[in-house]
Design goal:
By secondary structure, the chain is mainly beta. The chain has a single domain, classed as Neuraminidase, CATH 2.120.10. The protein contains 1 helix and 26 strands. Pfam families: GSDH. This is PQQ-dependent sugar dehydrogenase. Keywords: Signal. InterPro entries: 6-blade_b-propeller_TolB-like, Glc/Sorbosone_DH, Quinoprot_gluc/sorb_DH_b-prop.
Length: 387
């Protein structure tokens, strides 16, 4: 990939732990993550003290961890508590923390990934840290190349080695989610690349959730012989997460409904025959659906029987509480609405907080001078019971 000129001084990465905070009322039916553990650097987080709210509600505090990023897309945590963050358009991998400076967490450029071709919604997308990272320093990335989307394995600082190629690419609907499941296999979400017929064709990789080994082979136990396909009938899945052993995915609809689905082996989620709940027994209905103007969510994380999804067009974070059986409990709660603009990635941190990235430099937002930003969310009132 060709070298890019350095950012102007006013746009270089800046960390500002506790430089910008906002307390948002969470309805009494919401969830509590409790007081955070000390930061990995050894000191308690420098966060404002939440105050009590009327009517038994709870507050959340949003703290800016880093500023001046460019379309941060994926977040994956390292064993030491720091995080790797991808930038879609620059092709860079950044490390945020766990070290801190007098201004907050330290942000370091790790490398620019060779072979990334950033056009439209494509570029350097998802990132996953090997479960054996402490021994092999290996990470996995999902990125758009010249002719396809692909998944590659790499040691930090070295060139990527593609392990799965041929995922269809386009200016839109490139998917890009990447994460290790509880079973130790690597899962990836793909888009239909604007060709809707791919989603129902098991022989094609577009519009699917894939399950592969760390070597890129179809994982043992997959539902279709010699195939990496785990589920099909998707339009454009970017966020995937597990609550216990249950897998969930957030999906962009077309004009009417965006979805959260519980993902099961070999199931068909209906696109392009169905958008949202269709009532057809051949397809799995979503557990939650929203109109596209209040959702269009990209990232997904699971924390303590709760799903958190970060939304682009909707400019908010939705919280969805789950029952013991994985069903939805109560009404989803909307947070951060129009406070930080378009929200992209969301990840559950080792200390119990939630990290969220903005995406205001993606060509569809209105960036503020501080954008793009990385936020840390902490819920107050630890000890509050759950419904």
């Amino acid at each position: 990939m060709s070298a890019r000129p350095p950012y102007p001084r006013s746009r270089r990465l800046r960390t500002a732990l506790a430089a910008s905070c906002a307390a948002i009322l969470l309805a009494a039916t919401g969830c509590s993550l409790g007081e955070p553990e000390p930061d990995p650097a050894g000191e308690p987080p420098n966060l404002p003290t939440p105050s009590a709210t009327p009517g038994g509600g709870q507050e959340i505090v949003a703290t800016v961890l880093a500023e001046g990023l460019r379309v941060p897309w994926g977040i994956a945590f390292l064993p030491d508590g720091g995080a790797l963050v991808t930038e879609r358009d620059s092709g860079r991998i950044l490390q945020v923390g766990p070290e801190s400076t007098t201004d907050g967490l330290k942000v370091t450029e790790v490398q620019t990934v060779d072979g990334v071709v950033a056009t439209g919604e494509g570029g350097l997308l998802g990132i996953a840290v090997s479960p054996e990272f402490a021994q092999n320093r290996t990470v996995f990335v999902y990125y758009t190349a010249e002719r396809d989307n692909r998944i590659a394995r790499m040691r930090l600082g070295e060139e990527p080695t593609p392990i799965l190629t041929g995922i269809p690419k386009a200016g839109v609907h490139n998917g890009g989610g990447l994460a290790f499941g509880p079973d130790g296999q690597l899962y990836a979400s793909t888009g239909d690349a604007g060709e809707t017929a791919q989603s129902q064709n098991v022989e094609q990789l577009g519009g699917k959730i894939l399950r592969i080994t760390p070597d890129g082979k179809p994982a043992p136990g997959n539902p279709f012989p010699n195939s990496p396909v785990w589920s099909l009938g998707h339009r454009n899945v970017q966020g995937i997460a597990w609550e216990g052993d249950r897998m969930y995915a957030v999906e962009f609809g077309q004009n009417t409904w965006d979805e959260i689905n519980q993902i099961r082996k070999g199931e068909n989620y209906g696109w392009p025959e169905v958008e949202g709940r269709g009532g057809d027994e051949k397809y799995v209905d979503p557990i939650v659906q929203w109109s596209t103007d209040e959702a269009s969510c990209s990232g997904l994380a699971a924390v303590e029987r709760m799903l958190a999804t970060a939304c682009l067009r909707g400019q908010r974070l939705w919280l969805v509480e789950l029952t013991d059986t994985g069903a939805v409990l109560g009404q989803p709660q909307s947070l951060l609405t129009e406070q930080y603009g378009r929200l992209r990635a969301v990840a559950a941190a080792p200390d119990g907080s939630i990290w969220v990235s903005t995406s205001n430099h993606d060509g569809r937002g209105r960036p503020a001078p501080e954008d793009d930003r990385l936020l840390r969310l902490v819920f107050a009132g630890g000890g509050a019971g759950r419904s």
